[in-house]
Amino acid sequence: MEELQDASIHHMTAKVISAIKNTKCYEPIYKELQKLVCNPSVDTNDMRNTLEDAIKGAGLETEIRNVIYNLVRSRISKNELNEKSLPTSKQSSKTAVSDPLGYLKRAGVLWDRRVRKSLNAMCAELKVPLHGQPRISSDREDFVAKWNELSNYNMDLANYRPVYAPKDLLEVLLSLKGPAKTTTENTDQIPQWEFSHIALPVKNLFELRSHYADLLRSDNYSAMDTTTQCQRILEGRHAPMCQQFLKKGCTPAPYRGALWASVLDSKLHDYDIDYWQKLRNSVWTTDHIVDKLVFKDIQLTASNDDQYFVFEDVLYQVLLCFSRDTDIGNCVEYETFPVKGKTYEGPPSGVVPFHGICMFAAPFCYLYDSPVNLYYTFRAFYVRYCHRLTTINTHPQGIVSLCLLFEKLLQTYEPQLWSHFRELQIQPLRVVFKWLMRAFSGHLPPDQLLVLWDLILGFDSLEILPLFAIIILSFRKESIMQVASLDSIEAILADLSSIKVLPLVQLALSRD
Amino acid sequence: MPNQLRLNSGANACCGGGGGGGDTSLFSDWTQAWRYASLQPTLGQSSATMYGRLPGTSGGNATVAGGGVLSGSGTGGAGGACGGVGTSSSTHDKLKIGFCTDLDKSVLVNNFEKRGWHQVNGDDDWHFYWAGVQTCRNIFSVDSGYRMHDNQMINHFPNHYELSRKDLLVKNIKRYRKDLERDGNPLAEKTESNNSSGTRYLYLDFVPTTFVLPADYNMFVEEYRKFPLSTWIMKPCGKSQGAGIFLINKLSKLKKWSREAKGPFHPQIAKESYVISRYIDNPLLIGGKKFDLRLYVLVASFRPLKAYLFKQGFCRFCTVKYDTSVTELDNMYVHLTNVSVQKHGGEYNTLHGGKWSVQNLALYLEGTRGKDVTDRLFGAISWLIVHSLRAVAPVMASDRHCFECYGYDIIIDNALKPWLVEVNASPSLTSTTVNDRILKYKLIDNILSVVLPPDGVPDVRWNKVPSADALGNFELLIDEELAAQDEAQNSTASSHPKATKVGSRWK
């Protein structure tokens, strides 16, 4: 028995080691290690112990731990792991039976293709090559000169439209038809606008409560105040500890940037800064259609937003570089399913910008002054979470699962609201979808939004989004029950500026 | 913070009573908590909203403020000027409170009507006058012989120009500092440094070096010669909204201007006086943009000084692009169904007007610079405001009928030091955006609740100590009367004149 355990641990270790060797940070760590070996405190007669001590003393141990932590959660496919190696990794394995969800995967692939096809069509219509073309030198000089104030860079955007908007994704989602329902529910409502026919596993409220249990745990034993705790944790530089701290939802603003960077593994190395400059140069030298889409998007959303318009110049830089970053395409998980037909290419990043995509980046402007820092943390956040909100996929935290979770919670715990919506023939999802797809960015005021995103990072789950949507609906239930039209309901839910995230979530989860 | 407290208390009060049988609602007991937290109002609430009366509701006395019974003594018998029957047993709606306003702004009128007041002319019996500057001059002028009675309040002090005119403000601050120095007050401590800024007051250095022209011309030239690389900004004393302002960085330019200006630039016959200040050429930039801060400060009395700071100030950014257009999309390019512009919150059609809330500024500074420097900055801002008010307090006619809401314009430099640029006695009440309108409505609402006695009837005889609820979004900056009382109670009375309460967190 023990031998089996040892063997599997050995097997795992070998896998992790080979994975580490493939990462960018392997070389710097190895070099650091080599330097340590030359350290006088390391004794060749007792290499193992003295070297281990030296590693611990230099803080290299924490760094290696962090590398392993991040690797295991992101790179190694869940199917290869036979066991959960770290308790904080909450990714559940994909459903073994893919048949019930085949249509969903197919829809996902079709959606991706459709979006790219639109982009290609736009290129054809406007007679620009999809892969971009070199900028003419006068344009390039103008661009370089105005790099820090791109809001002053003039671009004729009259012929450009965002490729799609959240509403479009919603329509596609609502029209998803599963295999024919065998139950004979006699409802006079057409059942296909409910998501309950989609056989994705989602948590119920009890499971959510246990998942988020740490939110309710009070820290009576700690003699330190929050600020000192933060400082200690950041000195330790241990990513899982930082993540644990974020679960409390009371992160002091000065430390949030550092904590997020630690959890998202976006600490800057020299090669990161070089890479950023490379991206920037490619933006300077190549004119790509996504540039226009980025400009259009920011002008339509962030530049008009009371909370974020100040940062528009930074957002231009970040989003433009984002669109050229091929690493993103490699990190993002796409749905796979055999589908006939032509495949279309997308932008270098693999992400076709949609209306409002810059709002994912906007809240980061409150955390970082320099665009480079902002970029890497935002990019990691996007790859880890945001992307799942923008495509149709079967991931347990994808937008489809979140919609399903929302509907189930609403139906089970707010039956009055549920029937009210049914009477009015309004899909409740219509009202909250824009919140879900943007992770509430642009809807909640920045200080509260950052708390919500603390919870996303801390508990490593987007499930807080539909949960919070339900909380808001429940909170304003009385008003909603009094009105009878979609417009009135939207008016009631338009202003979330007085909502405080933490007390509401704690209250919702604490009831028996 | 208050919202949070109220929410918890309300919820706790209700959680004891469990839900009824079969009630699976998450928050069945939350309706009470929700009311206490005064979030989005239901349709059933007050008939008067910030947009005026809802149609179909009776125009009754939908008073929100006050709501108490008139105190039997005093207001009931304040004479025929009240225009109503006032017996000691009458309720407040017997005394018809009349308001008069020189500005026809809905943020004002709606707030007044919400309290059940009715509009009258300046010649009629008014109890509350939101006056323009000219009217004030008439009312307060010695010749008019106008005497206000105890149930009349007006929104300006007779000589507010001591604070709002640039030359008088500078003169008063300089005099204040000299007085403190002469008294040996530690506040007036100076630093003898050899750096470019020369001798500076350590604690009272919140106004850029300023001279009044033509009177201080020679002093200005002396200062100019010490720091020839500085840029200076010329502002006419009596104008507003940036009219007539220009920069100079060479003395010759000033001489040239004075030659070209209308009328001889002669000390004895100056037509218009100007102030010339050291230009702040290193302002704090956010997102690469320059901005200044607009804060509202309510002064209920100058002697003793009672001042309140409105927590919802904002930053005004100057290079805002207004050339975006939110157009409806058609699905020309896209082969998806129902492509349309996603408006979220319904606010994205209105422009933000270049205004960014002070809360967001604080959040940004804390996140990128740290809490200590942010706290220091906001402390310095409160300090600046208090001392500017103290500087003019001795010369202000502290009429009991008066209160005033000032608009403070402050610039922050890149060392996170605030500088006082200007004080406006009639800050604009025009709303440029939806949020702006909401803000100004709340501002007027809170001003009224602070300056009026608890029963909502204008009366100068109350103790002018608003309750915590009445403060609303205002935070107490300084109340010299209360501070003196506290000191009298404390046995260890160190009579430090610095009896200020530096503003607490702005969130």
From TrEMBL, chain A:
Pfam families tied to this protein: RabGAP-TBC
Gene3D superfamilies (UniProt xref): Ypt/Rab-GAP domain of gyp1p, domain 3 (1.10.472.80)
Domain Rab-GAP TBC, first and last residues per copy: 250-460
Top-level taxon of the source organism: Eukaryota
Protein name: Rab-GAP TBC domain-containing protein
Organism listed in the record: Drosophila willistoni (Fruit fly)
Taxonomic path: Eukaryota, Metazoa, Ecdysozoa, Arthropoda, Hexapoda
Gene: Dwil\GK21071
Automatic annotation (TrEMBL), chain B:
Keyword check for Ligase: yes
Molecular function via GO: ATP binding; tubulin binding; tubulin-glutamic acid ligase activity
Segments of skewed composition (Polar residues): 487-497
Subcellular location: Cytoplasm, Cytoskeleton, Cilium basal body
GO biological process, alphabetically ordered: microtubule cytoskeleton organization
Catalysed reactions, as listed in the record: (L-glutamyl)(n)-gamma-L-glutamyl-L-glutamyl-[protein] + L-glutamate + ATP = (L-glutamyl)(n+1)-gamma-L-glutamyl-L-glutamyl-[protein] + ADP + phosphate + H(+)
Residue stretches in coiled coil: none
Region feature Disordered, mapped onto this chain: 487-507
PANTHER family associated with the record: POLYGLUTAMYLASE COMPLEX SUBUNIT TTLL1 (PTHR12241:SF31), TUBULIN POLYGLUTAMYLASE (PTHR12241)
Family stated for the protein in its record: Belongs to the tubulin polyglutamylase family.
Subunit structure: Part of the neuronal tubulin polyglutamylase complex which contains TPGS1, TPGS2, TTLL1, LRRC49 and NICN1. Interacts with PCM1, CSTPP1 and LRRC49.
Name listed for the protein in its UniProt record: Polyglutamylase complex subunit TTLL1
Species assigned in the record: Drosophila willistoni
Higher taxonomy: Eukaryota, Metazoa, Ecdysozoa, Arthropoda, Hexapoda
